[in-house]
Amino acid sequence: MVDRYEDGHRVRREVLGSEHVDKALQSQTDLDEPFQRLITESAWGTVWASPGISYRERSMLTLALLAATGNFDEIPMHIRATANTGASKSDVIEVFQHVAIYAGVPRANHALKLAKQTFQEMDEV
Questions:
Q1: Class in CATH terms, 54-124
Q2: What does the DSSP assignment read for 72-108?
Q3: Are 86 and 56 in contact (CB under 8 A)?
Q4: Successive 10-residue mean pLDDT values, the chain, 125 residues
Q5: Domains of the chain: which residue ranges?
């Protein structure tokens, strides 16, 4: 029997890093616990845990979808995750070029701006 919640925690730590996950868990309250359980089980324990494609590919898809749908708040977190997923800076540029053509230049431009800032912060550490 697969425990999606436990798998989700494991995968989330592998992708986002233990520091990020620990910080998220420390800030969790009774109010958002059901939501956190949902994303841990579904996003991390089902989708990201699936053996169908690699973390690198999932990372690239996630960045493209976030940018294409204008969900920019999570782009820096997923840029930082590239250090764990194997998606390179070059991969990220390719992703946002696709976004520019298929979802619009303004969204890709903003996503690239966030990526540049986040990569710069990562390089400074």
A1: mainly alpha
A2: GGGHHHHHHHHHHH---HHHHHHHHHHHHHHH-HHHH
A3: yes
A4: 89 96 94 95 97 97 98 98 98 98 98 98 92
A5: 1-50, 54-124
